[in-house]
Design a protein that fits this description.
about 300 residues, 11 helices, 4 strands, globular
Length: about 300
């Protein structure tokens, strides 16, 4: 159509604001899911803070083991490679409390399911993935805090720690806490009653603890147990913490004597990065299966 010598194309249309609007909606959705994760994680932290008895009771078992075995048997088990038996036990006790705390925090999931609160959360508008990640994040923070408390005993046992060692230890504790909580969430997704979860917990934790090298070197265990030792994820978590915490006491694995650290596979000692990969891999697998379980209708 022409008007005053100027041709106007009738096919020209205004640019649609739809793409920009969609980008804003996607960003808003991400922020909403992030707020959900933070809110659920905060709920787990508040549960822990408001029940200080949980921290005290969770410290009893590892401290008892550390005192009875570490101090009580120190005269029967001499130092080896510059490391005392109590110092050798410390990383194992940290790993023990972290995994037990991560698994125990998931009891609250069973509690919420039994009393109907979990169903209300799962039918809420936020995505179920955000709810699961928030649970794992909150439980991991609680477990990391509990493991860090045990780390404070290091100077009492004569373990020398610098800033880098402390940061590396906390990173290892956090990795183990995330994996332990993810595994606990997976177990909790199958259990509907508190009594059942309480019965399952010892069946999972005790073999993991005893075959992880937390109490004695894995090199002293029979060969036929090596298969169970190498498929036990806690073995790698304990070894990571031990190699980091005691790094200032021993030069390398060959000088550590009976308390030598390092997991051997096919005649080679695995690097810490590979061990961390094993632990992280298990955590991702457990998280994926947990998301799949909670994605189903209750």
């Amino acid at each position: 159509m022409a008007s005053g010598g100027v041709t106007v194309n009738s096919n020209l249309r205004e640019t649609s604001p739809e793409p920009a609007r969609r980008d804003v909606d996607v960003e808003a959705d991400w922020l909403a899911e992030l707020r959900t994760v933070m809110m659920v994680a905060k709920r787990e932290l508040l549960r822990f803070v408001r029940a200080p008895g949980r921290l005290l009771t969770s410290l009893v078992l590892p401290l008892t083991f550390l005192l009875i075995f570490g101090v009580g048997l120190s005269r029967l088990v001499p130092s080896s490679g510059g490391v005392s038996f109590a110092q050798f036990l410390l990383p194992g006790m940290i790993a023990m409390i972290v995994v037990m705390a991560g698994l125990s925090n998931c009891v609250l999931v069973v509690w919420d399911r039994e009393f109907g609160f979990l169903r209300e959360m799962l039918v809420a508008p936020p995505h179920r993935i955000s709810l699961v990640i928030g649970r794992i994040a909150g439980g991991s923070l609680v477990a990391t805090a509990q493991g860090t408390v045990i780390l404070l005993l290091a100077p009492v046992l004569g373990v020398r720690l610098d800033l880098m060692t402390i940061l590396a230890t906390i990173a290892g504790v956090a990795l183990l806490a995330i994996t332990g909580t993810a595994v606990g969430m997976f177990l909790a997704s199958w259990v509907r009653r508190m009594e059942s979860f309480s019965a399952v917990m010892p069946l999972v934790t005790m073999p993991m603890m005893l075959l992880s090298g937390a109490f004695f070197p894995i090199s002293s265990l029979p060969v036929w147990l090596s298969v169970f030792i190498h498929i036990n994820p806690l073995t790698y978590g304990v070894d990571i913490l031990r190699r980091v915490i005691l790094s200032d006491h021993v030069a390398d694995a060959r000088t550590q004597g009976e308390f030598a650290s390092g997991v051997e596979m096919f005649g080679h000692t695995l690097p810490i990065a590979v061990e961390a990969g094993f632990v992280a891999g298990l955590g991702l697998v457990a998280m994926a299966f947990t998301l799949r379980r909670f994605g189903r209708p209750e």
